[in-house]
Amino acid sequence: MSMTDPIADLLTRIRNAAKEGHEKLEVPASRLKANIVRVLKEEGYIKNFRLQREEGRPVIKVYLKYTEKGASVIQGIKRISRPGLRKYSSYETLPKPLSGAGIAIVSTSKGVLTGQRARAQKIGGEILCEVW
After folding, report:
1. In whole angstroms, what is the distance from residue 67 CA to residue 79 CA?
2. Could you state, in order of their start, the residue ranges of all structural domains in the chain?
3. In CA terms, which of 13, 27, 74, 98 is 20 to 30 Å from 2?
4. Residue 45 — φ and ψ, nearest 5°?
């Protein structure tokens, strides 16, 4: 069965695993998913990730991060641009989730960046998701 929105699948798996308190999760790999997970690690929302091959298929293993009290660092994760309705933005109008407490992940001509970095480099792009 083909997946119509693999990024939404990635975000849903992360959301569900964090809600259940899992230490790690696996998702089928792609270059875009690896870049999204890389941004999540750089911003401190996950512990780590690994690109591996299992049974000949590329897989991303994501290691989730929790606070000392056991709450997930990722409180919310939301898909913005989707296959049926793409959302693009110039650097001036990039969203600031929770008034800057969260991040927007943007696909730009310079790669996948946070909204803050894209704003600093003055480049817009497709708003993939928001994380807080």
Report:
1. 24
2. 6-131
3. 74
4. -85, -25
pTM of the model: 0.94
Q: What is the pLDDT of residues 78-131, one digit of tens each?
A: 999 999 999 999 999 999 999 999 999 999 999 999 999 999 999 999 999 999
Task: Give pLDDT tens digits for 15-58.
Answer: 999 999 999 999 999 999 999 999 999 999 999 999 999 999 99
| Residues 115/93, Cβ–Cβ less than 8 Å | no
Please choose, from the candidates 87, 127, 129, the residue with its C-alpha nearest in 3D space to the C-alpha of residue 108. Answer: 127
Write down the architecture of domain 6-131 according to CATH. Answer: 2-Layer Sandwich (3.30)
Q: What are phi and psi of 128, to 5 degrees?
A: -75, -50
Q: Which residues contact 47 (CB under 8 A, 6 or more apart)?
A: 41, 63, 64, 65
